[in-house]
Design a protein that fits this description.
Blueprint lengths: L1 H6 L8 E6 L5 E2 L8 E2 L5 H16 L3 E6 L4 H14 L2 E6 L2 E9 L6 E4 L1
């Protein structure tokens, strides 16, 4: 949400959000509140609010490129959902070898997988 609001001020150039994460959504902003709601383990509301924000970013033309540092199937699936919705990129990387990654690319509404 903060990145979306900051990027709203800049209409030119490449507008993208780079996220480095373990893939686990644990916080969201409740409308009208000044502090985020934290929830671990994640709740259905946290997942829902995260995906709603991904939709807002997508509608505003912001690409989300995510570096995923965890290999849990459930978390990888969540990051894949974000990437598919936003038509951004997901880089599935080992934290010890961040330079080696698997790229999942949904740009231009087609999926391709590239191993590095």
């Amino acid at each position: 949400m903060h990145a979306r609001k900051l990027l709203a001020r800049h209409k030119g150039g490449t507008r993208q959000i780079v996220v480095i994460t373990d893939g686990e959504p644990t916080a969201y902003w409740e409308p009208g509140h000044s502090t985020p709601v934290f929830s671990y383990p994640p709740t259905a509301r946290t997942l829902q609010q995260t995906l709603l924000e991904v939709g807002r970013c997508t509608r505003e033309g912001l690409r989300i490129n995510t570096f995923m540092l965890e290999r849990s199937y459930g978390l990888m699936r969540f990051v894949d959902d974000i990437t598919r919705i936003n038509r951004g990129r997901a880089f599935f990387a080992d934290p010890e070898r961040l330079g080696d990654y698997i790229l999942v690319d949904y740009l231009q509404q087609k999926s391709k997988r590239i191993a590095s």
